[in-house]
Amino acid sequence: MNLSELEAREARALEERAPEPRRASGSPILALENVSLAFGGVKALSDVSFDVREHEIRAIIGPNGAGKSSLLNVINGVYRPQQGRIAFRGEVRSHMEPHRAARLGIARTFQSLALFKGMTVLENILAGRNLMMKRNLLLQALRIGPALTEEIAHRKRVEEIIDFLEIPHVRKTVVGRLPYGLQKRVDLGRALAMEPKVLLLDEPMAGMNIEEKQDMSRFILDVNDEFGTTIVLIEHDMGVVMDLSDRVVVLDYGRKIADGTPDEVRSSQAVIDAYLGVKH
Amino acid sequence: MIYRETGQFKTSYASDQQLFPILQDRVVVIGFLVFAFAVVPFVASEYLFRAILTPFLILSLAALGLNILVGYCGQLSLGTGGFMAVGAYAAYNLALRLPDLNLIVVFILAGLCATVVGAIFGVPSLRIKGFYLAVTTLAAQFFLDWLFARVGWFTNYSSSGSVAAPPLEIFGYPIQGPVHKYLFVLAIVCVLALLAKNLTRGAIGRSWMATRDMDVAAEVIGIRPLHAKLTAFAVSSFYVGLAGALWAFVYLEAWEPLAFDVNRSFELLFMVIIGGLGSILGSFLGAAFIVILPIALNQLPTKLGIPLSTASISEIELMVFGALIVFFLIAEPRGLARLWAIGKEKLRLWPFPH
After folding, report:
1. Per residue in B213-243, pLDDT tens?
2. Cα torsion for A170, A176, A178, A181, to the nearest 10°?
3. Which of A96, B149, B160, B182 fits A77 for a cystine, CB–CB 3.0-4.6 Å?
4. What digits encode the pLDDT tens for the residues B271-291?
5. Nearest-neighbour CA in chain B from A165: distance (Å)
6. Interface contact flag, B199 A123, Cβ < 8 Å
7. Which CATH topology does B40-349 take?
8. Cis peptide before B166, with omega less than 30 degrees from 0?
């Protein structure tokens, strides 16, 4: 095969991929209704409503301190909002709890890495499957029969995730010793191990160089395509947000100022004002 | 060159997850066990059994229990002596009031009594962390000290407060003499160390370490802090309580509440820190350091023929011991187990530079 043929093939492959099948935007899987959250006198979120449709990539953007991370913390129950309701897969609640959110299939990664630093990559990702491991303490201590079978079955699933994220060479390395980009992948792997319905990503690309960003973008798209996972994403890199997401919600000072497709949001005057400031 | 895993291919997850995946490790461990079970009983002196090996093994077990709590789950405790006392007095009362009970059952029940007490005193850990938790566990220590010294029922109303263990016997077979006691303790310690290793590398161990390393993230992936912390307190207290029962029945034979005071708690905590937090091997190394080193230091001048009075030897012993603790903690803050791991890493390449 000569070079031109190869190029032609690549171009064809690109073309096949190019008209990316717009993800069928199904019914809302997650919806927040009029959520308000305050810490003492500081209002982190006021009266925010938005929904996430099944199988979409939903971005949350906004300037620093806009309340983006607080919003994720409300969704998976780390914070308890003073007002509003959360509907997840048809069930409406006034607030979530972290344990329940995990059980229902909401996983997340963290802005500042929150890995288990003293554990290996394998152990970190296996910990993501702890909820599914049911054997009692005595069986685990003896490590016989069902406890051993269970451990091996979950190891197999974890190895698939490790392969997917392209980190098999470090599987037995203690996470604290890994470079930042790989730690971010392990964080994603731990969330994926939970086999979530909805994956909340808090600035998955913060502090990365361009190549690492490309890798991470690819992983996010693949997770969305192959596993059909719904993704809620906070990100500051506008290029990434506009390329990846189906719909974008914009927060500023805890309020929602825009909501729509990337193009709609980009041309919204409120958003431009929030990012660039207004002339007084 | 000596210690290399080259050529040892793992073709299944089961073989990759076995206890010692590297052949050399297996050989060393099996050799060590054979030595401890089959050679030591014939060569060691009675003094060695009584004064060094048996107390070393029992304190290793207690340190192992404490390491599960402090090293694996990250919950600081200063109540270890108190939990040992619970095990000791529970075993005493069980043996006294139910004389027909098998000794093994007595020890297990004693451990379970400590489990319950430990889990109760572990409840504050849900709200209190770090040094503050250490202070609340110190309260457990003082309460338990008071309980066994003041409430007569526990000591069977003995006027002096001291009690004596009944003669040891399992299935009609008496455990007398230092060799039998050594083998009895060794067998228990080996089994429990294996169980602890299995727990720490299973799902429950991961939930402990996750709680230790990053509790918010652990909660978000569905690990309940309540469950993780209380199981750590419970399992840890079982080990500590069982060690307390062994300490009383096998090593001391007759004891008073002072045998389990706060000094014991500190001593065990030092063992865990010097040996290596979050390491099963470290518990043994730490116990060896604290138990054996002072005795070795004490005997060294006499063996070398240096003329020193007994008083000055014991003064020097304390000074050198203290200096060595400081030295080892500066050299490797993560303990002797870490030094061992570094040594193994070096052996992979030795004698080549890279």
Report:
1. 999 999 999 999 999 999 999 999 999 999 9
2. 120
3. A96
4. 999 999 999 999 999 999 999
5. 19
6. no
7. ABC transporter involved in vitamin B12 uptake, BtuC (1.10.3470)
8. no
